[in-house]
Structures are given as structure tokens and as C-alpha cells.
Specification:
Length: 339
């Protein structure tokens, strides 16, 4: 069982979250209070302060990373179901297989208001472009009119109302922020604290073995796209995964999460390694074949030396798989010699 953290440590955590895009209101309750006594709970999520009158009991999640954040916190019994395409890898070998078996898979298509209503959801946990969007009419404001609360994935926070660019903090900080906020909302602070401590220790262990900055291989994340590659800026998961694993993220100057760049930028930055995001209709093998046959990339170091590394989608979006993904990539990068 996780050990309850001292009150002083919880206070420090709450202060650390202030101004990070999501923070929780100070808790004035004592351990003797029942969960019902500890609501309402106020949380500032992506710059919007929301008061939740009671712990959600019928949560609908969108996509694999978001779903697994709930599972990692042991909250599958608070879920009405999840929405996820079936292109997100093998779910049978993940630590949360039992939770996947227990929670209904509501749809393999896009999440909609109708899905939430049919599931009698009291909260939808999704992200901007991870389910929420004005184009599909699914927004926290629209759900509120239906009596359904929302929580927005912090990795996806937009920089302003209607803004295109996303991301307001480093990716791992976004993960820790969501774990702490959801721990508060569902009264599982001890679980959240234990996960955050474990993940930070795992990341620190990998980072401690990283080479000196001057010796780090440069890394480009390739999601998909032929005319223009979709990649990661500094606010999406791959930035921290690459950096903490001992790589130099070549797109670290992009003030966005997931976005497109020009191939000429990739060529100019000449990455030593290309990481492929494995998901979608185009297989990792086809993505690799394209990269190796695309003439403008012929002289890029990663292509010349056949340094292409494949990672699963769920490793690269904000999720509880991020720390293990860092450890695995770190092992690969330690074997890369760029001299």
C-alpha cells in the first residue's frame, strides 16, 4: 500500500503546481473527513478554474494515454468506458490489461456528445485535438450545457482561446500535473503521489546515464506525412522522452506540441537518429521504407547510418508509459556513436 505523504509535502506539491497550467485548491480537510465532505473541489485546468461538486463516477476517456492515466491511478471503477481506435498497439501485454478487460470499449471511432450521453457520463477526459475541438462540437462548454463535466489533458492545453499552438509546460510536468490534479479530484492523492515519485525516480535514473551535452546524438521524431512531416515540438511527450533519454531533440525550438515542419528543416538539422511513431494506417515498416527512399533525406546522418528507432504511439503521447519509454530509448541512444 502507498505510504501517506506528510501534510507538509502535499502543501509543497500544491504550491509547485500553481501557475503550471493546472493546480488544485488548497485542501483544508482532515484525514477524518469522508470523501463526500471533501467536495466541492476546485481545479484550474488549462487556465480554466472548474469546481466539481462530487467525485465523478461515470468517466468517459478518449484515447490510449488518457485512458491509461485513469488506470494507473486505479480508477477503472469510476469509468463508464473509453473511446479509442484499434491502431494503438497490443493492449494485452500492458500492466493495465485487467482494467481494459473490465471497462467497456465504447467506440473505435471519434468520441462524440452522443457517446458521452449514451454512457451517462458525468465527466469526459480528453484533450484539444485528442477528442475536444470546435470543429466536431465537442468542447467542455458544450458538455457543460448537457450537465457533463470535463477535464482537459494538460499536454494539449492551448495557449489562448481559439489558439492553434498547444502546450504550456514541459511534457513530463504535464503528466505529473494531471496525476496530482486527478488524485485530488478522486481523493486518491496517495496513489498519485506514489506514481509521481516512482516516475521521477525512473526518469532520473535514465537521465543520470546520459552522455555530456556535446556528445548527445541529435534526434528527430517522425509521426507521419509525405509532403510535410508531422513531428513533436517542445510541449509534446517526445521532447522530454528524447531529452531525458540522452538525445538532443532537433525540434526543441518549436513552441507547440504536435505540429508540421518542412523537410528542408529536417535536412538542415541533420539528425543522427530518427524515431518513428508507430500507429495509424501507415505501418512503421512503411514509414521506415519511405524515409529510406525519400531522395532529399539521402545524406541525412540517420538515413546514411540506418539509425531508425520505432516507438509505440502510447509511449510518445502523455501517458504513464512515458518513463519506461525514456529508459528504453536511453538504452538505444547509448549504443549510438556519432563521431
Amino acid at each position: 500500500m502507498p505510504v501517506r505523504r506528510p501534510a507538509a509535502l502535499l502543501a509543497v506539491l500544491a504550491l509547485a503546481l500553481t501557475g503550471c497550467g493546472a493546480h488544485v485548491a488548497p485542501d483544508t480537510d482532515t484525514a477524518a473527513h469522508r470523501p463526500s465532505d471533501r467536495h466541492p473541489v476546485a481545479i484550474t485546468n488549462c487556465g480554466t478554474r472548474t469546481t466539481y461538486s462530487r467525485p465523478p463516477r461515470r468517466v468517459v476517456t478518449n484515447d490510449v494515454g488518457i485512458t491509461e492515466i485513469m488506470f494507473a491511478l486505479g480508477l477503472e471503477d469510476r469509468m463508464a468506458g473509453y473511446v479509442m481506435p484499434d491502431d494503438k498497439g497490443d493492449l494485452a501485454a500492458v500492466p493495465w490489461k485487467a482494467a481494459y478487460d473490465k471497462v467497456p470499449w465504447l467506440s473505435k471511432k471519434a468520441i462524440t456528445k452522443e457517446i458521452a450521453l449514451d454512457a451517462r457520463a458525468d465527466l469526459v477526459f480528453a484533450g484539444w485535438n485528442y477528442g475536444f475541438g470546435e470543429d466536431n462540437g465537442l468542447t467542455p462548454a458544450a458538455l457543460k450545457k448537457l450537465g457533463i463535466d470535463s477535464y482537459v489533458l494538460t499536454e494539449s492545453c492551448r495557449k489562448g482561446p481559439g489558439g492553434g499552438a498547444r502546450g504550456v509546460m514541459p511534457p513530463l510536468e504535464a503528466l505529473y500535473t494531471d496525476l496530482a490534479a486527478l488524485g485530488k479530484l478522486f481523493h486518491v492523492e496517495d496513489r498519485a503521489d506514489a506514481l509521481i515519485a516512482r516516475y521521477k525516480a525512473q526518469v532520473a535514473e535514465a537521465a543520470a546515464k546520459a552522455p555530456a551535452p556535446a556528445d548527445r546524438p541529435s534526434v528527430f521524431l517522425y509521426d507521419d506525412g509525405r509532403d510535410k512531416p508531422l513531428t513533436s515540438g517542445k510541449y509534446a511527450g517526445p521532447h522530454d522522452i528524447i531529452t531525458k533519454a540522452g538525445g538532443d531533440h532537433v525540434m526543441k525550438d518549436l513552441n507547440d506540441s504536435w505540429t508540421t515542419v518542412g523537410w528542408e528543416t529536417v535536412v538542415a538539422r541533420d539528425p543522427d537518429v530518427i524515431v518513428i511513431n508507430n500507429y495509424g494506417d501507415t505501418s512503421a515498416a512503411r514509414k521506415k521504407a519511405f524515409l529510406e527512399s525519400y531522395a532529399p533525406l539521402a545524406n541525412v546522418s540517420a538515413i546514411k547510418h540506418h539509425r531508425i528507432y520505432v516507438m509505440d504511439y502510447a509511449d510518445l503521447v502523455e501517458s504513464p508509459r512515458n518513463p519506461t519509454a525514456i529508459s528504453n530509448l536511453a538504452r538505444y541512444l547509448r549504443g549510438v556513436h556519432t563521431g
